Amino acid sequence: MTLLKVSDLVVEFQDAATGRINRACNQVSLDIEAGEIVGLVGESGCGKSTLGRAIVGLEHPKSGSIVFDGVDILSLPAAARRQARRRVQYIFQDSLAALEPRQTIGSALHEALIIRGERNPRARAARIGEILAATNLNSGILTRRPRELSGGQRQRVCIARALLAEPKLLICDEPVSSLDTSLRAQVMNVFLNLRDELGVAIVLIAHDLALVRQASARVNVMYLGRIVESGPSGALYAQPLHPYSRALTAAILGIDPEVERHREQTVLKGDLPSPFAPPSGCSFRTRCPDASDRCAAAEPAALVREGRSVRCKLYDETAAVN
Fold first, then answer.
1. Helix orientation angle between 121-134 and 105-115, rounded to the nearest 10 degrees
2. What is the pLDDT of residue 85?
3. Across the strands, what pairs with 68?
4. Of 90 and 185, more confident
5. Worst-scoring range by mean pLDDT, 163-167, 189-193, 243-247?
6. Are 49 and 173 in contact (CB under 8 A)?
7. How far apart are CA 245 and CA 238, in angstroms?
8. β-strand 226-232 against 302-305: which pairing, if any?
9. Which terminus of the chain, N or C, has fewer Cβ atoms within 10 Å?
10. Which of 209, 261, 239, 222 has the alpha carbon at shortest distance from 49?
11. Residues ≥6 apart with Cβ < 8 Å to 46
12. Between 151-163 and 121-134, two packed helices, what is the crossing angle to 10 degrees?
């Protein structure tokens, strides 16, 4: 069952000084099934976070549609839109900034339930106990403040607070990027348990491609405002189709140093173009090792076949996408 369907979403920002437009999301389409983890990867500035923030209502799209649980959220009146979006929660990268520094964790969690209309203190305490267990936290943290917790504990508190809204979908924006390896594993195990035990769907926005491969059923690769490739995680990592996807997956280090020493490296030339002045045609062509003159003529259409999608002139309607 499709829980979220984003179609042709456009989100733009205007530079106040120059008036130039940055199309951070350029006709982006994305599907999320109920109870699955979907990865969203790409360089900083490619539009990943903007897409996530638009889904949860923190950015206002210029056009397109966001259909969540069968309802087009963008077509609803403001009050109904806020109500519908309570079932979509956002986990921010900086857990310390996401929590009120002077408020105890217990107060923050109780407040989340009060906002939802739960006035009974005993009922709130019981619900908080359930959520703490689901996120591998003990009740001793309830009297502590954010700075008294580890990074992993704070991130799990943010997850717990989001779960109190009983969401069907979590948007997780680089949720483990600031944590060390052991804490990353703790937080990722929480996400996997939420999927398996509560059926919560998760959009995992991350730079760590190895982590996304491990956790996600499907992966979307984003570059300069567009999703350039998407498909099942195993197939995409085993045989990336888009040149940008190949460069990203080639950057994943293996565990055998001897193999890594002799592995062919894919190095992208140049820097990410300015989003205020993207190249004509294919936005990746200025860095692509396979670019040709025809890449500058027009933006390639998405070729969709057998559960995979790719935007590249290397593929046409007769190309095989397996």
1. 110
2. 83
3. 4, 71
4. 90
5. 189-193
6. yes
7. 11
8. unpaired
9. N
10. 222
11. 222, 223, 224, 225, 272
12. 130
Whether the predicted pLDDT of 99 surpasses 70: yes
pLDDT tens profile 69-79: 999 999 999 88
- Name 65's bridge partners: 7
pLDDT at residue 319 in the model? 45
Model confidence at 262: pLDDT above 90: no
Widest pairwise Cα distance in the chain? 68
Q: What per-residue string of b and e applies to 244-277 under the rule 16 or more CB within 10 Å gives b?
A: bbbbbbeeeeeeeeeeeeeeeeeebeeebbebee
Q: What angle do CA 258, 261, 263 make, to 5 degrees?
A: 105
Q: Could you give the angle at the alpha carbon of 279 between the alpha carbons of 282 and 46, nearest 5°?
A: 75
Place of tokens 């996807």: 245
Task: Give CA–CA dist 173/53, Å, rounded.
Answer: 9
Residue 254 has pLDDT above 70, yes or no: no
Q: How far is CA 122 from the centre of its chain?
A: 35
- Say if residue 51 is exposed, middle or buried (CB neighbours under 10 Å; 0-12, 13-18, 19+): buried
Give Cα 128 to chain centroid, integer Å. Answer: 26
Give Cα separations from 6 to 18, 34, 67, 153 (angstroms).
30, 14, 6, 32
What domains can you pick out in the chain, each with its CATH number?
2-311 (3.40.50.300)
Please, what is the average pLDDT of the chain?
A: 89
| Predicted pLDDT of residue 259 | 55
60: left (phi over 0), alpha (psi -120 to 50) or beta: beta
Answer yes or no: are the C-beta atoms of 95 and 158 closer than 8 Å.
yes
What pLDDT is recorded for position 310? 95
Cβ–Cβ < 8 Å for 86, 76:
no
Rounded to whole angstroms, the Cα distance separating 290 from 242 reads 10
pLDDT for 322 beyond 60: no
